[in-house]
């Protein structure tokens, strides 16, 4: 049995679905159910005998302690986090509370739990902490992709809070021998991603004929990883990863934000030939750039490929088309999440950044 925090979010829910399908062992989902947590993501396993959901906050120390003592997981996969850079510019404290203090509480309780396990279970136990390539900061145009040992240089409250949590996780291994593993992944995309992030925002806006907002000149470079490939990497690391180490997870292809948006428009032009907004690229609108917008990210993933034998299976264009098709086939899901607080956020944020 394993415990996943933030399992109703994008990566967490995809991980749970894949785990039950592939590993076929019990899994617990602890999620606060913030705006980004959606139990509809897990509707297909809601009544599965291997799945248990507990609504709660990782800041609730007593609850975390109770869960560990009751269910006795052999691993914790820590997905719970505030993740959206734009939101961190408005509410930095929320990111510090969840990403730094919440991770500290989880580490504290995991250490107490781990210290009382029998020797064989201590060796088996893993604390797997998910992080981001953004902790490394922005790369220069001709700089090679970063390796795991590169110093952190975060430029947003979000990435700073994740860098801090990474340091804490590392320190619990160095100081107390807790068997931790840290991952830094590139931008994720795929089914169930909340449409505040670039790819689902462009898809959902285009379907409604709304503007497709691109920050600045759109030439910011990102590396992308399909969420199913990411989850496979996480499962593999739980089995083969070395405690105390960190691993980069990503693809080898780089794309500018502008390229990604134009590719989405091209896919929609093909799949939605009846649309009244053809070609969809006419909906693109450049807006004022956000503060401290990192120009380029890039991860060297040779470590995980050589040591663990993992590499992404699909290519970006193929997986992007699969993602667009998923949103087209799940319009009710889209309607359910793009209402209320989401509409207020989009209206407020993009009106303020409008050029």
Description:
α1 (10-22) crosses α8 and α4 runs parallel beside α6 (157-176). The protein has 13 helices and 12 strands. It is an alpha/beta fold. Helices cover 45% and strands 15% of the residues. The relative contact order is 0.13. The mean pLDDT is 94. The protein has a domain at 2-190 and 224-253 and 296-314: 3-Layer(aba) Sandwich (Rossmann fold), CATH 3.40.50. A 7-stranded parallel β-sheet has the order 3-2-1-4-5-6-10, with helices on both faces. Strands 7-9-11 form a 3-stranded mixed β-sheet. The protein has a two-stranded parallel sheet with strand order 8-12.
Series of secondary-structure elements, N-terminal to C-terminal: EHEEHEHHHEHEEHEEHEEHEHHHH
Q: What is the straight-line distance between the termini? A: 50 Å
Quickly give the structural class: alpha/beta
Total strand segments:
12
Secondary-structure arrangement, i.e. CATH architecture of the domain at 2-190 and 224-253 and 296-314: 3-Layer(aba) Sandwich
The fourth-level CATH homologous superfamily of the domain at 2-190 and 224-253 and 296-314 is: NAD(P)-binding Rossmann-like Domain
Strand order of the largest sheet: 3-2-1-4-5-6-10
Number of helices: 13
Mean pLDDT: 94
Quick take:
With 355 residues, the protein is of the alpha/beta class. It is built from 13 helices and 12 strands.
What is the strand and helix layout of this fold?
Elements: E1 2-5, H1 10-22, E2 27-31, E3 51-55, H2 61-71, E4 75-78, H3 85-90, H4 92-115, H5 119-124, E5 126-132, H6 157-176, E6 180-185, E7 187-189, H7 198-207, E8 212-215, E9 221-226, H8 227-240, E10 246-249, E11 254-256, H9 257-271, E12 284-287, H10 302-307, H11 316-329, H12 331-337, H13 341-352
Parallel strand pairs: 1-2, 1-4, 2-3, 4-5, 5-6, 6-10, 7-9, 8-12
Antiparallel strand pairs: 9-11
Helix pairs in contact: 1-8, 2-4, 4-6, 7-9, 9-11
């Amino acid at each position: 049995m394993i415990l996943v925090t933030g399992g109703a979010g994008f990566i967490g829910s995809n991980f749970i679905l894949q785990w039950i399908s592939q590993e076929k062992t019990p899994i617990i989902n602890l999620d606060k159910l913030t705006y980004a947590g959606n139990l509809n993501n897990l509707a297909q396993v809601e009544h599965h005998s291997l799945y248990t959901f507990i609504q709660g906050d990782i800041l609730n120390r007593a609850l975390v302690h109770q869960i560990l003592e009751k269910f006795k997981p052999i691993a914790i996969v820590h997905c719970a986090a505030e993740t959206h850079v734009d939101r961190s510019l408005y509410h930095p404290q929320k990111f510090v509370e969840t990403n730094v203090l919440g991770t500290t509480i989880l580490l504290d309780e995991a250490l107490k739990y781990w210290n009382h396990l029998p020797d064989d279970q201590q060796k088996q136990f893993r604390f797997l902490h998910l992080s981001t390539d953004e902790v490394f900061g922005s790369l220069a145009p001709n700089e090679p992709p970063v390796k795991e040992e590169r110093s952190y240089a975060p430029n947003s409250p979000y990435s700073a809070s994740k860098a801090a949590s990474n340091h804490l996780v590392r320190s619990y291994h160095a100081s107390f021998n807790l068997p931790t593993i840290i991952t830094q992944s590139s931008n994720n995309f795929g089914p169930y991603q909340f449409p505040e992030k670039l790819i689902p925002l462009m898809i959902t806006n285009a379907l409604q004929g709304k503007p497709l907002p691109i920050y600045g000149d759109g030439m910011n470079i990102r590396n992308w990883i399909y969420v199913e490939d990411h989850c496979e990497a996480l499962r593999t690391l739980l089995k083969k990863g070395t405690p105390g180490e960190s691993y980069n997870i990503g693809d080898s292809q780089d794309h500018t934000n502008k390229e990604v948006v134009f590719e989405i428009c091209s896919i929609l032009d093909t799949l939605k030939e009846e649309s009244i907004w053809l070609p969809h690229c006419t909906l693109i609108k450049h807006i004022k750039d956000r503060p401290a917008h990192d120009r380029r990210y890039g991860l060297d993933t040779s470590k995980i490929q050589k040591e663990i034998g993992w590499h992404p299976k699909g290519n970006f264009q193929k997986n992007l088309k699969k993602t667009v098709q998923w949103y087209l086939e799940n319009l009710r899901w889209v309607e359910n999440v793009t209402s209320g607080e989401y509409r207020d956020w989009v209206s407020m944020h993009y009106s303020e950044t409008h050029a």
